[in-house]
Design goal:
By secondary structure, the chain is of the alpha+beta class. The chain has two domains: 1-41; 42-133, no CATH class. Helix content is 52%, strand content 18%. It has a three-stranded antiparallel β-sheet with strand order 1-2-3. Strand 2 (90-97) and strand 3 form a beta hairpin. 16% of the residues are buried.
Length: 133
């Protein structure tokens, strides 16, 4: 995502926050810019109508891992979280470590179970947050 795209997304988000109606073209542009921002943690392509949904969930999941740590690593140990998939090796959730190297947080045989795991994790966190736990 370029600086111009990021600035445009901020401007459109500001319009939304101020309850200013967006035109149809602005809504489509905002969706595409949000998708570009969200897919920065993905190392594979998403297609179809659900690409926006999965990209948003993956971005939220990676932000959680970076903020809270995972698999014995603290947030200070994790520099970046990303999600990758290869048809030959399957999918994995990985973290680039601050001290160098990469660790696999969780691996999967296929893309859909990986995406469902991420969505389920986000839904469970939301449920627990709403319960007050």
């Amino acid at each position: 995502m370029t600086a111009n795209q990021y600035n445009r997304l901020c401007a459109l988000n500001l319009k939304c926050a101020e309850n200013i109606s967006l035109t149809h073209e602005e809504i489509i542009e905002r969706n595409e810019l949000q998708f570009l921002e969200n897919k920065q943690c993905l190392d594979f392509s998403l297609r179809g109508d659900s690409k926006y949904y999965y990209a948003a969930n993956c971005a939220e999941f990676c932000k959680f891992i970076e903020a809270n740590g995972a698999k014995g690593y603290t947030p200070d140990d994790i520099q970046k979280c990303y999600i990758c998939f290869s048809q030959y090796y399957g999918g994995s959730i990985r973290a680039t470590l601050s001290g160098g190297g990469v660790t696999i947080i969780k691996s999967f045989n296929d893309k859909l179970p990986m995406l469902e795991y991420i969505v389920g994790h986000n839904e469970a966190r939301l449920y627990m947050k709403n319960r007050g736990a």
